[in-house]
Design goal:
The complex is a heterotrimer of chains A (about 240), B (about 375) and C (about 240).
Chain A lengths: L20 H16 L13 H17 L3 H16 L3 H28 L4 H24 L2 H10 L4 H31 L7 H29 L10
Helix pairs in contact in A: 1-7, 2-5, 2-6, 3-5, 4-5, 6-7, 7-8
Chain B lengths: L9 H25 L7 H14 L1 E3 L5 E3 L3 H8 L1 H19 L7 H48 L5 H51 L1 H4 L14 H34 L5 H8 L6 H13 L2 H6 L8 H15 L11 H4 L5 H29 L11
Helix pairs in contact in B: 1-4, 1-5, 2-4, 3-4, 3-5, 3-6, 3-8, 4-5, 5-6, 6-8
Chain C lengths: L4 H13 L4 E11 L6 E11 L3 E5 L6 H8 L7 E6 L2 E2 L2 H5 L1 H10 E4 L12 H11 L4 H14 L15 H13 L5 E5 L7 H16 L3 E5 L3 H4 L5 E4 H4 L3
Helix pairs in contact in C: 5-6, 5-7
The chains are: A mainly alpha (about 240), B mainly alpha (about 375), C alpha/beta (about 240).
Chain lengths: ~240, ~375, ~240
């Protein structure tokens, strides 16, 4: 019943392989899942309504984009930082991390322009500042809002139901399919014990299976919806 | 590829978002026509799939990896109209969750990645497939005729033997046709996605590049993206032509090939190709026309010829030149197109023509390349089988 | 990377000397999914001898799957030590790509849900994935795959797409894919769940044979009737943890 070659140990030595794409993808997916699933956000209890917050955030970002005076930028920055200062350290760190990275990246992109045209340095630096402020704004919104509340907020904005339904579905499937991809990659990494000569084949396999599974899940969900009396009118959601 | 916040002026952002409105409306209308009711939740799957696809690290040489956008792939799996909506939602979530791409720049990002990319990629894929199919049919007919001719010439065979041989010959041809057409299909998918992502990158480059031209402060210094077209186009296009395009093509072909091998009936492209209905390519043609027309923008911005991007020249022409033009007379700032024009003589008008011509030449070369590529597929191989 | 004879004899000496040592040695393992979360595993100690067959019991949510993740190096414990085959499995060890791969080859993990293990275009490729990774030549890979297809009596499925098959068939393919690596130790998470009687008996016979061959096996199962007489020891995960 059991093949002969299983009777002995292989004494296996692994060859070198530059395949880090699996680990990198698992990491970025884990980051995403943490972002969506773990609602560790700050100020959950005494947070203002999500809709109001969304509008305020968008307004703030717009103001940052159109303000020509560095004074008004400074004013916005002052308000944001003052508000952040009331938060616990951990929350501040996770909020500012992305903003600092984005600002540094912008500064890097702007360096050649600043060298070529010193007269424009002022504007370029203000651009860096604006990037920093916008990302901070968005991060604050993200950090204090639960994801399912955002679609609730949009419902109040009278955005077509079908759009909100799709958005809800998207969030649901991001979690479901994201977990599937993560699991597939994990089990793949357990069996990737040597040199993977067909990296693109493996990649195609993971995303291909995910597509097929997404189709199946969708089919099953629609059938379940029908069993629960769904008539085909997406406005009832 | 994701345009961050504040690189584009709010005016540009509003403009791009407005440009997307009819596209979205068209896509929603088409999806409602194309997809049966039970497939509507599929849009959510498509958006999630697109979102997750953008997170995937695609292996490159050595241990390095890159990210794909996957717009063409989504279009081939879910259909271009569904892809437009799906990628838009994915981009919206990315902007909101990750700050990947600005919230205000959402319209511009959608234009590049949810409109240009999927429609162009799918359009190119389908054009190649149709073209090859036509060629292939002709070639096969020829081969079939020859084979039966050969057979009838052989006198030693009785009728039944002949019939069975004929059959086997035919099935052999069919199998051959299948494997060849599969390879062609993957190649078409690869070419489509490669060109499409480069088109999208080009659009992004143009959006970046017109910023310093249109939005300056009173001193003539750029308020938003400071790089004009002479910098933004090579800065965007070189990495995309060399790396990102290949990543996109590899990702598209790898996933598409897997789905085709195992569940071909699930992909939109298979259903679409089987229908053989007359489809309009208006979005694609419109896109090509816009791109050709837009190419002289490079001229307006820098005054240098296509391909001459010396750093010193950029400093000289655009910055030194413009700062001379805009010295403190605070009134002249802002809309600077007209004040730029006097600099250009008849010579530059010719240059504009040169731009349009080179764009037309480029497009023609692509079409010719497709046609040349299709020649070996005419079915020569079938004589042997 | 070859399975040369010199290496094999060296291996026998090592494994022979290792007979008196436990293959899995967990000491005071603590684990939680985040700094503010409750501990899922609380000072757990466990020692498993080479060739033993362990039945791991415990109610839902008692940390069995977490323990399996730790045993496979997918999660690192917050504190405590884990020795596999006399090697300390820690962050440093797993960081070395080649060491980690050898470790993964030697401990096979059958996930509870076979769906997440199948990502190849055909059953043949799925089972051949591991051996191909190991750099075996095509003949050897083909032999391994054919042997396993025969072992599981699924030769007819070789060219099918794995995820289009039934639950029981998927489970068999996933098991075969793990066995193709020829690991020293097997971790089987609910190997009988969702299988019909006949398939259960077949998997049971297979586990028995693996045990006879000296492989170490850890099984989590709620269905005791299938595993009852196979297990050398029954362990309850709740009792392994001391608060």
């Amino acid at each position: 019943m059991i093949p002969d070659w299983m009777k002995e140990d292989d004494n296996y030595v692994s060859p070198k392989d530059g395949g880090t794409f699996v680990i990198k993808t698992i990491k970025s997916l884990a980051h995403l899942m943490a972002r969506i699933k773990v609602q560790k956000g700050h100020e959950k209890k005494r947070s203002m309504p999500v809709l109001l917050k969304l509008i305020l955030t968008l307004l703030a970002i717009l103001t940052i984009a159109i303000s020509k005076e560095s004074l008004s930028l400074m004013a916005i920055g002052a308000v944001l930082l003052l508000y952040l200062a009331t938060w616990p350290g951990e929350d501040i760190a996770s909020c500012l991390k992305g903003a600092v990275i984005a600002a540094l990246f912008t500064a890097l992109v702007m360096t050649p322009a600043m060298l070529m045209n010193p007269a424009g340095i002022r504007n370029n630096l203000s651009l860096v500042l604006r990037v920093f402020l916008s990302v901070t704004c968005l991060n604050i919104f993200n950090h204090t809002s639960q994801w399912n509340h955002i679609s609730l907020a949009m419902r109040k904005l009278h955005i077509p139901r079908i759009f909100i339904f799709t958005l809800d579905m998207t969030l649901k499937y991001i979690v479901l399919l994201g977990n599937l991809i993560e699991d597939l990659l994990t089990s793949m990494s357990l069996r990737m014990v040597g040199k993977n000569t067909k990296k693109y084949g493996s990649l195609g396999g993971v995303m291909g299976v995910t597509f097929v599974r997404g189709n199946e899940l969708n089919q099953m969900m629609y059938e379940a919806m029908q069993c629960r009396g769904f008539t085909g009118d997406y406005n009832q959601f | 590829m994701h345009i961050p916040e504040n690189y584009l002026s709010p005016t540009t952002c509003v403009l791009m978002a407005t440009a997307m409105l009819p596209v979205w409306a068209h896509a929603v209308k088409k999806v409602n026509e194309e997809l049966p009711r039970e497939k509507i939740p599929m849009l959510g799957v498509g958006a999630a799939y697109s979102f997750l696809g953008m997170m995937f690290n695609v292996p490159l040489v050595g241990g390095t990896t890159g990210h794909a956008v996957g717009g063409t792939l989504i279009a081939m799996l879910f259909g271009p109209n569904a892809a437009c909506i799906a990628v838009s939602i994915a981009l919206l979530l990315q902007a909101l969750i990750f700050g990947d791409g600005g919230v205000l720049a959402f319209g511009a990002n959608c234009f590049n990645m949810a409109f240009v990319l999927p429609y162009a990629g799918y359009g190119i894929y389908k054009l190649i497939m149709k073209f090859v199919a036509k060629r292939h049919e002709k070639g096969l007919d020829l081969a079939g005729q020859k084979a039966s001719l050969n057979l009838s010439q052989k006198s030693g065979l009785n009728l039944s033997q002949k019939a069975s041989l004929d059959l086997s010959q035919k099935s052999g041809l069919d199998a051959d046709k299948k494997s060849v057409s599969r390879k062609v299909e993957y190649l078409a998918a690869g070419i489509g996605s490669y060109i499409a992502i480069n088109l999208a990158a080009f659009c992004a480059a143009v959006e970046f590049g017109i910023q310093p031209l249109l939005f300056k402060d009173s001193l003539g210094n750029a308020i938003y993206c400071p790089y004009d077209l002479s910098v933004s186009i090579p800065a965007m296009m070189i990495p995309h032509l060399l790396v990102a395009g290949l990543v996109e093509a590899a990702f598209t072909v790898a996933v598409y090939a897997f789905v085709c091998k195992t569940s071909p009936d699930l992909t939109f492209s298979k259903i679409d190709l089987a229908k053989k209905s007359k489809k309009s390519y208006i979005p694609v043609y419109a896109l090509v026309a816009v791109l050709i027309a837009a190419s002289p923008l490079g001229l307006l911005a820098s005054g240098t010829a296509w391909g001459e991007w010396g750093a010193d020249e950029i400093a000289e022409t655009s910055y030194a030149g413009s700062s001379l033009n805009y010295t403190p007379s605070g009134l002249e700032n802002g809309w600077s197109l007209e004040s730029l024009m006097p600099d250009y003589t008849l010579g530059s008008l010719n240059e504009a023509f040169a731009y349009i011509l080179s764009a037309i030449i480029g497009v023609s070369i692509l079409i010719i390349a497709f046609k040349l590529f299709a020649i070996p597929m005419k079915g020569k191989k079938n004589y042997d089988s | 990377m070859k399975l040369c004879s010199a290496g094999a004899s060296l291996g026998t000496i090592i494994s022979f000397s290792g007979v008196f040592m436990s293959i899995i040695e967990l000491k005071d393992i603590n684990f939680s999914y985040g700094p503010s979360e409750e501990r899922v595993i609380k000072s757990l100690s466990l020692s498993i001898e080479r060739g033993e067959c362990i039945l791991l019991e415990g109610p839902n949510g008692s940390g069995k799957s977490t323990l399996f993740r730790i045993l496979n190096g997918l999660s690192l414990p917050d504190s405590g030590t884990y020795y596999f085959d006399s090697r300390l499995i820690d962050k440093k060890y797993l960081k070395s790509e080649r060491d980690a791969k050898v470790f993964h080859k030697e401990i096979g993990y059958l996930f509870q849900n076979p769906d997440i293990m199948l990502f190849c275009a055909s059953v043949y490729d799925e089972i051949g994935f591991g051996p191909r990774q190991m750099g075996l030549d095509d003949v050897e890979v083909d032999k391994r795959v054919r042997d396993l297809l025969k072992t599981f009596d699924i030769e007819k499925l070789a060219d099918k797409a794995p995820y289009h098959l039934s639950g029981g068939q998927k489970k068999k393919i996933a098991f075969a894919a793990v066995m193709a690596l020829n690991p020293k130790a097997y971790i089987l998470d609910e190997p009988f769940a969702g299988l019909d009687r006949e398939s259960c008996e077949m998997i049971g016979r297979l586990i028995k044979n693996l045990k006879l061959m000296g492989k170490t096996i850890i099984i989590a199962s709620h269905d005791e009737s299938d595993i009852g007489e196979l297990a050398d020891r029954r362990l309850n995960i709740v009792e392994l943890m001391q608060d």
